[in-house]
Amino acid sequence: MIRKANSNDLRRIIDITKACAKLMISKNIFQWNEFYPNLETFKKDVINQSLYVIENNKEVIGCLVISDHMDEFYYKVKWLTPNTKNGYLHRLAIHPDYQRKGFAKKLMKYAFNFSKENGFKSIRLDTFSGNPQNNIFYQSLDFKKLENIYFREQSELPFYCYEKVL
Q1: Residue 52, CA distances (Å) to 24, 64, 147, 149 in order
Q2: pLDDT of the residue at 34
Q3: How far, CA to CA in Å, does 40 sit from each of 15, 37, 46, 47, 73?
Q4: Which of 86, 6, 12 is nearest to 47 (CA)?
Q5: pLDDT digit string (tens) for 91-109?
Q6: Domains, the chain, ranges and CATH?
Q7: pLDDT at residue 139 in the model
Q8: How far apart are CA 147 and CA 152, in angstroms?
Q9: Which residues of the chain are under the pLDDT cut of 50?
Q10: Beta-strand (E) ranges in 69-108?
């Protein structure tokens, strides 16, 4: 089941993202760390009603932010569609115990349906260039790789911007 997250979910979401960060770091993927994502960020997502969770047997096992807010760092990107009615995905996480079982794809399909129902022209996201699995995953869902952006506090390596026209 996929539903909007609430403040009662926050502790579990932090546990999930910490487990994901630990797994990525063990694979030399420095996308997330002890500073990001953090509780304050997820609290804002709950307030903005943009954070969704996926449950398996009533246990929260993952999350995804679906937003219509374009962050400042995306302004310089040459997107495929005009900057009028677009969805932005952030902080996709599935607990490592549940990865590679189709749950991330279910969240993404939910995001596609949500975006179409809300009249979005496209969905945009970014992912770390040093995370080959994520890049393959998004390309397999027909996202087109566009320009690079940088988050120097996380890595000297770029993050790739992706867009899927709906």
Answers
A1: 22, 5, 27, 25
A2: 82
A3: 14, 8, 10, 11, 19
A4: 6
A5: 999 999 999 999 999 999 9
A6: 2-165 (3.40.630.30)
A7: 98
A8: 16
A9: none
A10: 86-94
* 71 neighbors 61 (Cβ within 8 angstroms): no
For residues 2 and 107, the answer to whether their CB atoms sit within 8 Å is yes
- Looking at residue 51, its pLDDT comes to 98
Q: Indicate the pTM of the whole model.
A: 0.95
CB 66 within 8 A of CB 115: yes
Q: Tokens in use for 27?
A: 């694979």
Element (H, E) at 26: helix 10-26
| Structural tokens at position 134 | 């994520």
Query: Rounded distance, CA 61 to CA 12, Å?
Result: 8
